Amino acid sequence: MKIAIPVLILFLAGCGATGTDIENGSNGDTDPNGETDPNGDQDHNGDQDPKDDDEPNGDQEPEREFNPDDPGIHMFLDMGALLMMGDPMELCAGGFMPAAREDFDSPEDGEEIPLNTCVVVTQGDGPGPECTTDADCYPEQVCEPRYDNDEQPIPDSEHCVTPRDLMDVGPLTITGFNGGPQTLQYNPGQQGAYTTADPGDGQLPPGTIAYDTTYTIEGGGDPAQGLGPFEGEIRVGPQLQLTSPPMTDVMGGMPGIQVNPNQDLVLEWTGEDQDGELRITLSGASMMGDDGSIECRVTDDGKFTIPQEKVAAANLGDMAFLNMLNIERLGTGFVAGEGMTHHEIGMIQGLMLNVAVGGN
């Protein structure tokens, strides 16, 4: 199932947002032997794998296990505020569907980057297919490949997934926005995703998102479909803005920053959230196909320095439009209600900036 919200898909894919896999509704798939898919999308909730009673649960509600006879309802909601190559975007979209076995599988945690440290990102071989036929999956699942953003199947990515459709369980209201509450409803034009009526593609008018605010989420549900009234919340932190290096014209009117690969890169920003973290990636490429990338996990305190050797490892090329600096702040929320057995509520603030080689 692919939800036709291209700008939201680009936003979430480009920023590495956690939470719902907008393209197929799956999350952290596991095969019948309980082997977690390391390529599965990160779960906002840290829900427990029903095959591992000792695994911790990060939800703000009692842990649940998948019941194939009464799966309940899965809700997802993603909010975002992005500066993408100089253009601001504000986004909010979600949906409801029957909960599935793969929702409850916890993705395998990779090795965590130490705080205030950068590492060079290497592209290794994928884990290979989890299945070859439907017989390798649970009875309610089928064996399907994953798809890239061009809707092309990814080789050797076959995995077990439950076919399901998005549901119309009535409107939901989110309170906390500038200008008043926003109502999201089932949108047939987006294959059943929940969006606002205008413009109806997952975007919000500029200036709608209020920063440093806790939002409330509520809806009446549809008891006839197994969902009662529900409520929850999610916090949006202070507005994230890069102040150094300063924004400049990096290529034909394209805004971005200049970076000298022979020096440390000092990043400074406002809107810091002292109790949180940021994920920073610097990546480069050339027309010859050479590329590189580094990733940093940093304290959200307003300043971080990327060492020169890590800046050089990003392999910044001569064409600014091929080089990117991404700064991301991720947040999670919760929702609960009768019949709601799983949820993924996420928020991302992201800066995606083109990078030109230069500077002192």
Strand content: 35-45%
The whole-angstrom Rg is 21 Å
Q: What's the SSE pattern?
A: HEEEEEEEEEEEEEEEEEEHEEE
SS-based structural class?
A: mainly beta
List its traits.
mainly beta; globular
How would you summarize this macromolecular structure in one to three sentences?
This protein is mainly β and 360 residues long. The protein has helices at residues 6-15, 308-313, and strands at 73-84, 87-98, 117-120, 142-144, 159-161, 172-175, 182-187, 193-195, 203-204, 213-219, 230-236, 241-244, 248-251, 254-259, 265-270, 277-285, 291-299, 303-306, 324-332, 334-337, 340-357.
Describe the structure.
The protein is mainly β. The chain is built from two helices and 21 strands. A hairpin with a 2-residue loop joins strand 13 (248-251) and strand 14 (254-259). The chain has two domains: 6-109 and 126-238 and 329-350, no CATH class; 241-327, no CATH class. The N and C termini lie far apart (49 Å). The model is unreliable at 1-62 (pLDDT under 50). Strands 1, 2, 3, 9, 13, 14, 16, 17, 19 and 21 form a ten-stranded mixed beta sheet that branches.
